[in-house]
Amino acid sequence: MKKKLLIILIVILLIVIIGILILVNSSIGKEALAKRDIRKLTKTFYSYYYDENNYDNGVKNFLKKYKSTGLTITLGNMEVYIEEKSNSGTTYKSLEKCDRAKSKIIIYPKDPFNKDDYELKFDLLCN
Predict the structure, then answer these.
(1) 109 preceded by cis ω (within 30°)?
(2) DSSP letter string over the chain?
(3) pLDDT digit string, tens, across residues 112-125
(4) First CA to last CA distance, the chain
(5) What pLDDT was estimated at residue 17?
(6) Which of 22, 40, 82, 103 satisfies CB 3.0 to 4.6 Å to 75 for a cystine?
């Protein structure tokens, strides 16, 4: 009788542990997907931004100013900017529950200041 009770308790404990792991992994997975999609958006945004500010090939000097402070943009403003430049919307399912006005992306340009030379910091407010 004690063996059956012990087996039942172990099975219940395993079910609880597996449930907790699934919940934790799904929230971590959602955050990873959101960051992956923001990286895609940022690549598009930064390419347009780089070209737009490359008057007289001075974009590198312009970006050097933001090496330590970074360029901060909200998720909503980034999406609007990309939509205006590409004439198409950007929709990512992973970002549907993010607050567009409060979620921010900080882009840190780095040497040698080409289109793909930057690091990102995320300040996301997503459910």
Answers:
(1) no
(2) -HHHHHHHHHHHHHHHHHHHHHHHHHHHHHHHHHHHHHHHHHHHHHHHHHHHT-GGG-HHHHHHTTTTT-EEEEHHHHHHHHHHHHSS----GGGTTB-TTT-EEEEEE-TT--TT-EEEEEE--B-
(3) 888 889 999 988 88
(4) 46
(5) 81
(6) 103
The whole-number average pLDDT for the span 44-67 is 83
**Distance between CA atoms of residues 100 and 76, nearest Å:** 4
Query: Is the pLDDT score of 38 beyond 80?
Result: yes
Amino acid at the residue 53: N
For residue 97, what are its two tokens?
């529950």
* Domains: count for the chain: 1
Q: At 23, which amino acid appears?
A: L
Q: What is the average pLDDT value for the chain, to the nearest integer?
A: 84
Residue 68 phi, psi (nearest 5): -95, -30
Q: Domain range for residue 45?
A: 2-123
| Cβ-Cβ contacts under 8 Å for 75 (sequence gap 6 or more) | 38, 41, 95, 98, 99, 100, 103, 104, 105, 124
Query: Above pLDDT 90, what percent of the chain?
Result: 24
